[in-house]
Amino acid sequence: MNRPRLRRLSAFVALALVAASFATALVVTGATASTTYRPNHLVHFDAGTYTGYKFNASGGIVASKTGSLVRPSTAATRLRTTIANRPGNWLLMVNGIWAGFYLRESNRTYLPFTRLRAVSFAAGTHTGYQFNAAGTVIAHKTYMLGRASSAHSNAQALIGSSTSYLRIVDGIWAGYWVPIGGGVGLRYPPLGAGRLTLSSVTGGLDQPLFVTNAGDGTQRLFVVERTGKVRIVSGGVLQASAFLDLTAKISCCEGERGLLGLAFHPSFASNLRLFAYYTAANGDIVVAEYTANAARTSAAASTERIILQINHQTYSNHDGGWIGFGPDGYLYIATGDGGGGGDPLGNGQNKNSLLGKMLRIDVNGAQPYAIPPGNPFASGGGAPAIWAWGLRNPWRDSFDRERGDLYIGDVGQGKYEEIDRAAPAVGGQNYGWNVMEGFSCYNATTCATTGKTLPIASYAHGTNDSVGCAVTGGYVYRGAGQPALQGHYVFGDYCTGRIWTLNQDENVANFVAQGQFAVNISSFGEAENGEVYLTDLGGALYRVIVAP
Questions:
Q1: What was the pLDDT predicted at 249?
Q2: Which of 124, 137, 315, 529 is the most buried (most CB within 10 A)?
Q3: Domain boundaries, the chain
Q4: Which residues contact residue 459 at a Cβ distance below 8 angstroms, ignoring those fewer than 6 apart?
């Protein structure tokens, strides 16, 4: 840590209006403002003049056709016009023929699109278009997608033919044309500012620092208390008994020491294995394994098997503290630089030190652990367990459960906080500390940036740390309950309680302020169902939700 730190929508088309006038795949704009539909009812179109537009795979209009509807018309039920009654849904054409209508209601315009296949996005330059309520393009934005990515079904990013057009949910950005062979696609829509809030789950916790799940189908939340216990929250209720009690083994609470991290083995439901990260009585970093009972209701401290112990006795800060299993099945361990200000021990850039690093080890092979063959120094040149280096105090990290990207929230020194990101199974990054802090040189006008991996996002502390002073890394939302949040990385600042979101493919210029809350954000966490939670060091657990 380092210092107290998307009614009415228009619906399916190809009704009486289109039978004689439009024989090609067209997107049609309604002429009147009162064109409406009711959820689970038939689509109604007013009499009037409508123009359809045919698009190519790049989003350009290649043809248009105008026809008059001499009397109001309603779509036939066989066109499957049912649409769920909530904002955020897309309108879908059944057979990939008609791309649909722009239909205006109040200040919103909705553009249907067809479905037949899931979207996969190619790397390249893509342009999104912003529409007003009449369906006119009023702005556009060009974005470089650095690598291919896949859509999530909850983002409604399904398409049909190359004549389809896609639009985002909230009337802000119409989405991006993305070439996928002869088709088009859409990346996730951005979330507007100030859309998130916190929903209280429980209090009564003792300095909670982390919340996670066991992946065992029980939907339980496990909260790490800095003072040494792991507590269970089941059905929103804090259980009286601790799941794991390491009070007698840890050093707390000088500086940033304590019980800091927890990770359940991917096969915990069957092998009962879990791992903790804590500081020992002498200040050393310890990563240890424990075994739960057969009912998975508790784990005894006496089952401890120490996996790794790292000397950290000089300073009581910058202990890191996150551990987690990657999609590759290996255990990742984030360590701080050893403490002090400015990395006086020189660990950040020292490839022979395990401090100031992201480590990767195999806990399924030889004991106490084995070195994965893909580690950058597995064959020499540095400590074999190192996966990446140049970190100051990585405080809360995560894997995107869909794409496998690794996100790191690295706490800065006195000016800048940063979010780093790595593609799946790509190691060997030097994140720059203590040569760089965020995008800037640390304590120097110029510095050597060659070979450094710059953050995807960074923010300045502001006057008197008014913006923040200690980033708390978060998670990419992958739950089903909040479509508007889908594909957004949620993170915050411990000192000010500010929360931001960052689209999964965006960068520093595009993270969005979601609000400031009266909490000390010690961690974010992810439930089995993909919902995101937040721990307040003051003793509470919250769920992060999109405000109504």
A1: 97
A2: 315
A3: 18-159, 196-546
A4: 416, 417, 438, 467, 468, 471, 500, 511
For residues 467 and 459, the answer to whether their CB atoms sit within 8 Å is yes
Q: Which helix (H) or strand (E) holds 441?
A: strand 440-441
Strand pairing class (406-410; 416-422): antiparallel
**Are β-strands 488-493 and 471-476 bridged in parallel, bridged antiparallel, or unpaired?**
antiparallel
What sign does the dihedral 174-178-179-182 (CA atoms) show? negative
Task: Give whole-number Cα distances, 119 to 156, 186, 296, 504, in Å.
Answer: 10, 7, 39, 16
**Residues 221 and 211: beta-carbon distance below 8 Å:** yes
Residues 6+ apart with CB under 8 A from 312: 279, 283, 284, 285, 319, 336, 338, 339, 355
Q: Are 40 and 25 in contact (CB under 8 A)?
A: no
Question: What does the pLDDT read at residue 401?
Answer: 92
368 preceded by cis ω (within 30°)? yes
Residue (of 439, 443, 406) closest to 327 by Cα position: 406
**Bridge partners, residue 397, by sequence:** 408
pLDDT digit string, tens, across residues 32-67: 222 222 222 233 444 555 444 444 444 444 544 454
Distances (CA, A) of 434 to 337, 389, 437: 9, 10, 7
Structure tokens at 344: 């006086």
Q: What is the pLDDT of residues 170-195, one digit of tens each?
A: 222 333 333 322 223 334 455 778 99
For the chain, counts of helices (H) and of strands (E):
2, 42
Output the six-digit token pair for 354: 């395990």
DSSP character string of 131-199: E-TTS-EEEEEEEEE-S-EE--GGGT-EE-STT-----SSSS---B---BTTB---PPPPPPTT-EEEE
Place of tokens 């228009």: 10
CA pair distance 312, 24, nearest whole angstrom = 70
Are 451 and 426 in contact, with CB atoms under 8 Å apart? Answer: no
Q: What is the pLDDT of residues 410-455, one digit of tens each?
A: 999 999 999 999 989 999 999 999 999 999 999 999 999 999 999 9
pTM of the model: 0.72
- HEC string of 22-51 equals CCCCCEEECCCCCCEECCCCCEEECCEEEE
3-class SS of residue 350:
coil
> What are the two backbone dihedrals, phi and then psi, of residue 536, each rounded to the nearest 5 degrees?
-105, 125
Neighbours of 181 (CB within 10 A): 9
User: To 10 degrees, the CA torsion angle through 112, 114, 120, 124?
Assistant: -60
Instruction: Determine the pLDDT at residue 289.
Output: 98
Residue 54's pLDDT is 44
Nearest Cα neighbor of 168 from 139, 193, 131 is 131
Which numeric CATH code is attached to 196-546?
2.120.10.30
d(CA 93, CA 87): 18
DSSP helix/strand/coil, 443: coil
Strand partners, 422: 406
